[in-house]
Structure formats: structure tokens, C-alpha cells
């Protein structure tokens, strides 16, 4: 199985707790015979690297340096993420089974890649704008929420870490509960559950799917 | 072989959505290309009452949801709209089994959608740069403007060829983004002179009387009421003209300077001589252009100046600023009058010259009409554009992207 993970933070660039979570996920997947590519952002270091844990990382930078906020920054970074993901796709003759995106930043890229190449994607929700902004609903927040909604709508499935978050996703974006899988990173069979969800999602969707 | 050429054109405006000059440009370019056997798919923003998909003069037009929540600012709206545009365009290309040879973007307003599509489908990208942020703002002063300029630079970087509509714009774009000269190609803008011929047999005197008294000459301005269009220069020239000629100044268009300009007119006590019509429909606009005794284009910055071509096609004499694309369109004393930009005295001189000498006015408008039939004909322009597409596809066929695809 071949998976592309899109995350706006990944070690050594650590912004919050998402970076280490994604790192742990990627290296565990490799141990379970999944071929994992992580496409992420770095301000200076760019290009591809085969990490010692077997994860293939590709770091892109933003072609537009000057920005007026995180929203415009994200929206001009997505095209570089698409470029990196497309390069992987063409290098492996289109055999990409799944894309897993962590939080909202690269939802536009995942949606375009799905429409263009028929690669299904999972939206892994770490946090939501509703809670980050503490209910603020300025046009800025609304825009991020509309992107989060797009992610929930276009994703084949969602992975959340708690029942509370599943209820919040369902409440805020009207996502049917059966589309959302709760997988706690603290549970003993965390990676088994992730793998099972990946396989369910990829099944029948991609000609390149192979059983592990 | 022409049937095998298909292009996807991205534009933020397409009729009936008309904001600036890109709408008419893309409309005429796409239907002329279609008439030359090119399959054309236009992806553009939605508009109230316009179909989400229609075939118009042989062109497949797709209108996508253009993000209707309130936006923090215009640029952020542009990027958000591009998310939808890219999503829908990607689905369209896939539904066509990838049978799109070229992606053609018009201005930074569709940059992010176009760049993403280029890489996802590995197709050559064309960018027509109609105007630049540094030109519109007369320099880059704020982060907001710099962000737009860097987006424009990125689009020209990603493009295989950058098309500009005038020699002036070629050198401006080359300077603004540091592009290699062989990346730039000049294709003039065109004008459809036949749209004006259907009004020729009409008696327009009653129409004219809605705007001016029979003894008043009509001085016409058409354009957005924004700083770079120089409407304030025309308003300041009005009293100087009125000292010599009985005239009516008709200002067509909307923009952020409208209140400021009508305040200026009120202060001059000229509300009976300078009228603001706002946005008018095509029929009214074309009749006005035919009725105009002089059409004025007093721009401070003008990449091309299609409104001057339209006036020439309507056989109205033109007075233009000697800047940008206008300098190339008009030959002084032959096909129009050129005046100093941002100079009300010079502008008034040009207007008076045309309005007080009928023989001269006839001479320049006859020459101008001949010129637009020769150089600014859309058939010619479509042919030229097709040749550029073909040449690039030939180069592309030798690249590793093309080999991967087959």
C-alpha cells in the first residue's frame, strides 16, 4: 500500500503537537509495510529526503513570500503541495492508494488530487476552527470553516481522536456519524485501526491497491 | 489536425459577468479560436441568471461557484474562488479523459488554479498578463500589493509563454518580473468592428437627445472610475473645453472614485454639462460610441486600451494619453490625437482640436477605421494564437512530461 500524508508541520519544523503525531504515524506505517510519503512545508529546506525511519519526505516552500495572513499563505502553498504529490503520482505510474491529510491546510490540494486522479483521501481532524477561534465568526474564520467543510464533504472518511470530536464534526458540518472513525492514539491497537481504516478506504478506489 | 487541439481557458470574468476588459477579450478570443477549429473550454465565475454550463458560439462555458461568503478582502476572495475553480476544472479535465492540450490563464486572478492544474495534469501553461499590480498602483507600497505582485511573478514563472497585448506591456512585464525575452510574445487585442455596423442604418437622433442637446457636442468617456483611468483629468479639462465649445461630457462606468468625481463636478458648477450614467447595457454603449463627437481615453496607466479600439470601430475620433498601449494604437494626427497624460491643458487642447475642425475629425476617424480592420481583427489574432499554441506543443512533445503521459 502506498500513502501520501499531507501535513503543514513535520519535524524538524514543529509548530504544535501535530508534527510529532504525524511523525509517529508515518514511521509506524512504514514498520507495517506501507510505503509512506510525507509532503510538508519548510521555509528553507526543500526537496525530497529518505528519512532513516523509512519515511520519504518532500518539503515545499511558498512561492509567494509576502502575505497578509495565514489564510492567503495556505492558499498559495497548496499548489506546491499539489506539484509534489503529482510528481510522486507520475513517478509511481499512478499507483497511489490513498492520501491522508492532517487538519485543514491542505484540503484544497487533496480535493483537486481526488478530482484529477481519483485518489481517495482521509481527513484526519486534530482540531477545528470553531474551537481554535473560540466561536469567532469573522470572514477569516468563515473561510477556514468553509475549507474544513469541503474536507469533510469530499473525504472518503474522517479519522478523529475522541468521541467528543466526532460529535463536534457531526454537529458543525453535518457529517454522518458512520463516515467518522474514532481512533485514539493512546489505544493499544492504534496503528492496527489506522491500517484497517486505510485499507477500507483504499479498497476498490485505486487500481494500484495491494493487500499488505 | 486542428480538431485535435483543445485548450482550457481560465478567467475570472466572462459575459454576462463584465468587470474589466478581460471579459470581452476572452469572449472574442475563445469564439474566434473555436471558429478556427480549436476545442475551447472556458472555466469562469458564476453570475446571477447565467447557466452553469452552456455552449456559446462553439465555446463550452463552465461557470463555477465563486465563493459567496463574506471575504476578509479582495485578494483572499480571489484565492478562495480559485479553490473552487481548480476543483471544478480538475473534474472537467478528468471527465474529458484528460483531452486538454493547453491551460491558458488570464491574469493573477486565476493564477493558483492554473498553476495547480498545470502540475496535476502536466500540461503546458500559457499566461496572458493584461495588467500588473505595480502598474495599477503605480508602484508596490503595501504587503497586500506585494503579495499580489509575487503571485503574478509566480504565474509568469510557471507559464511556458507569457502573452501581452502590446509592445509596451511586453517590456513592462519583462521589467516587472525579470523574464527572459524569449518567454514573452505579443498578440494584440482585437475589436469586433461588425458589432457596430448593425447600428449604422439606425436614426440615432432621438437616442442622442436623451443625453445631449442637438447643439451640444458629445465628449465620451468609457471605463472604470478608478485613479489609473484618469477621469479626474478629464473633469479638470471640462471647463477649459467649455470656454471654447458647447459640449456635453458623458462618463460611462462605475468605480470607487464615483462620489469623489461627482463631488468635483458639483463644486465646479457643471452638473448640467458632465453626466455620470453608471454602467450601461451593450446597446446603449455602442450607440453612445457612434454618437460621440470625440471619445477620450485619458488613462495614466494603460496596458492596452481596448476602449480606444472600440471607439475607432464605432468611427468616433479619439483623443488618448500618450502612454502605454495607447501610444501604439494611435498614430498622432493620422488615426487620433495624442496628449500628455495627467495634463488637463493638453487634454483640453486635443478635445478642442477635434471638436472645432470637422475636416480633421473626419480624417483621423477614417484612417482609424482602416487601421483596426487591418491589424486588430479577431480572426487574425486567433490564427496567431493558434500558431503559438502549436509551436509550444511541438516543444512540449519533446519533454519528459509528454513521454510520461503516453
Description:
The complex is a heterodimer of chains A (212) and B (406). Chain A is an alpha/beta fold. Chain A has a single domain (2-202), classed as Rossmann fold. Chain A is 43% helix and 18% strand. Chain A is built from seven helices and eight strands. Chain A has helices at 18-31, 70-91, 107-117, 129-132, 139-154, 163-173, 190-202; strands spanning 2-7, 35-41, 47-50, 56-60, 98-102, 121-124, 157-160, 180-182. Chain A has an eight-stranded mixed beta sheet with strand order 3-4-2-1-5-6-7-8, with helices on both faces. In chain A, helix 1 (18-31) links the parallel strand 1 (2-7) and strand 2. In chain A, helix 2 runs parallel beside helix 3. Chain A is globular, with a radius of gyration of 16 Å. By secondary structure, chain B is an alpha/beta fold. Chain B has two domains: 2-190 and 377-405, Glycogen Phosphorylase B (Rossmann fold); 194-375, Glycogen Phosphorylase B (Rossmann fold, 3-Layer(aba) Sandwich). Chain B contains 17 helices and 14 strands. Chain B has helices at residues 22-35, 74-95, 111-121, 133-137, 143-158, 167-177, 194-197, 205-209, 231-242, 258-268, 282-291, 306-313, 324-329, 344-356, 358-375, 378-396, 400-405; strands at 6-10, 39-45, 53-56, 59-64, 102-106, 125-128, 161-164, 184-186, 217-222, 247-252, 274-278, 294-297, 318-321, 337-339. In chain B, the strands form two sheets. In chain B, strands 3-4-2-1-5-6-7-8 form an eight-stranded mixed beta sheet, sandwiched between helices. In chain B, helix 12 (306-313) links the parallel strand 12 (294-297) and strand 13 (318-321). The longest helix of chain B is centred in the first third of the chain and has 22 residues, at 74-95. In chain B, 48% of the residues are buried. The A-B interface holds A 63-69, 71-72, 75-76, 78-79, 82-83, 86-87, 90, 108-109, 111-113, 115-118, 138-140, 142-143, 146-147, 150 and B 67, 69-73, 75-76, 79-80, 82-83, 86-87, 90-91, 93-94, 112, 115-117, 119-122, 143-144, 146-147, 150-151, 154, 157, 404.
Amino acid at each position: 500500500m502506498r500513502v501520501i500524508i499531507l501535513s503543514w508541520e513535520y519535524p524538524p519544523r514543529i509548530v504544535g503537537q501535530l508534527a510529532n503525531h504525524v511523525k509517529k504515524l508515518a514511521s509506524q506505517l512504514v514498520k507495517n509495510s506501507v510505503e509512506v510519503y510525507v509532503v510538508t512545508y519548510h521555509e528553507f529546506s526543500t526537496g525530497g529526503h529518505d528519512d532513516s525511519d523509512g519515511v520519504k519526505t518532500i518539503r515545499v516552500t511558498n512561492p509567494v513570500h509576502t502575505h497578509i495572513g495565514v489564510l492567503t499563505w495556505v492558499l498559495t502553498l497548496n499548489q506546491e503541495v499539489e506539484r509534489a504529490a503529482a510528481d510522486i503520482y507520475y513517478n509511481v505510474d499512478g499507483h497511489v492508494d490513498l492520501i491522508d491529510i492532517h487538519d485543514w491546510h491542505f484540503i484544497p490540494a487533496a480535493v483537486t488530487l481526488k478530482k484529477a486522479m481519483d485518489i481517495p483521501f482521509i481527513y484526519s481532524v486534530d482540531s477545528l476552527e470553531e474551537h481554535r477561534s473560540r466561536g469567532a465568526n469573522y470572514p477569516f474564520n468563515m473561510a477556514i470553516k468553509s475549507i474544513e467543510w469541503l474536507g469533510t464533504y469530499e473525504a472518503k472518511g474522517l479519522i478523529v481522536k475522541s468521541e467528543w470530536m466526532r460529535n463536534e464534526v457531526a454537529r458543525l458540518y453535518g457529517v454522518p456519524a458512520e463516515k467518522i472513525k474514532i481512533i485514539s492514539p493512546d489505544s493499544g491497537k492504534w496503528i492496527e485501526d489506522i491500517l484497517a481504516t486505510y485499507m477500507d478506504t483504499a479498497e476498490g478506489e485505486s487500481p494500484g491497491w495491494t493487500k499488505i | 489536425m486542428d480538431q485535435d487541439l483543445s485548450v482550457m481557458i481560465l478567467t475570472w470574468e466572462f459575459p454576462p459577468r463584465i468587470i474589466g476588459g478581460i471579459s470581452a477579450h476572452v469572449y472574442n478570443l475563445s469564439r474566434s479560436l473555436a471558429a478556427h477549429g480549436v476545442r475551447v473550454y472556458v472555466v469562469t465565475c458564476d453570475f446571477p441568471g447565467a447557466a452553469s454550463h452552456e455552449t456559446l458560439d462553439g465555446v463550452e462555458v463552465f461557470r463555477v461557484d465563486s465563493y459567496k461568503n463574506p471575504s476578509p478582502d479582495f485578494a483572499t476572495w480571489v484565492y478562495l474562488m480559485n479553490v473552487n475553480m481548480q476543483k471544478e476544472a480538475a473534474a472537467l479535465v478528468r471527465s474529458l479523459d484528460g483531452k486538454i492540450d493547453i491551460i491558458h490563464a488570464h491574469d493573477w486572478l486565476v493564477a493558483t488554479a492554473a498553476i495547480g492544474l498545470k502540475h496535476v495534469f502536466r500540461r503546458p501553461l500559457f499566461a496572458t498578463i493584461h495588467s500588473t499590480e505595480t502598474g495599477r498602483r503605480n508602484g508596490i507600497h503595501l504587503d497586500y500589493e506585494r503579495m499580489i505582485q509575487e503571485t503574478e511573478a509566480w504565474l509568469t514563472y510557471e507559464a511556458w509563454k507569457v502573452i501581452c497585448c502590446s509592445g509596451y506591456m511586453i517590456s513592462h512585464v519583462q521589467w516587472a518580473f525579470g523574464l527572459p525575452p524569449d518567454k514573452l510574445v505579443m498578440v494584440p487585442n482585437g475589436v469586433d468592428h461588425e458589432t457596430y455596423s448593425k447600428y449604422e442604418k439606425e436614426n440615432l437622433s432621438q437616442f442622442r437627445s436623451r443625453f445631449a442637446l442637438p447643439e451640444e457636442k458629445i465628449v465620451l468617456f468609457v471605463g472604470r472610475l478608478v485613479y489609473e483611468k484618469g477621469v479626474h483629468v478629464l473633469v479638470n479639462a471640462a471647463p477649459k473645453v467649455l470656454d471654447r465649445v458647447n459640449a456635453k461630457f458623458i462618463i460611462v462606468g462605475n468605480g470607487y472614485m464615483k462620489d469623489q468625481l461627482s463631488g468635483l463636478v458639483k463644486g465646479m458648477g457643471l452638473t448640467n454639462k458632465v453626466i455620470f450614467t453608471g454602467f450601461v447595457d451593450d446597446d446603449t454603449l455602442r450607440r453612445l460610441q457612434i454618437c460621440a463627437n470625440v471619445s477620450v481615453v485619458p488613462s495614466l496607466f494603460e496596458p492596452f486600451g481596448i476602449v480606444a479600439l472600440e471607439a475607432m470601430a464605432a468611427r468616433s475620433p479619439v483623443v488618448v494619453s500618450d502612454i502605454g498601449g495607447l501610444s501604439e494604437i494611435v498614430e498622432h494626427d493620422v488615426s487620433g490625437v495624442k496628449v500628455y497624460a495627467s495634463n488637463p491643458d493638453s487634454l483640453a487642447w486635443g478635445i478642442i482640436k477635434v471638436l472645432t475642425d470637422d475636416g480633421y475629425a473626419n480624417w483621423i476617424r477614417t484612417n482609424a477605421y482602416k487601421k483596426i480592420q487591418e491589424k486588430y481583427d479577431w480572426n487574425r489574432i486567433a490564427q496567431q494564437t493558434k500558431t503559438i499554441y502549436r509551436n509550444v506543443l511541438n516543444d512540449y512533445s519533446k519533454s519528459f512530461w509528454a513521454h510520461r503521459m503516453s
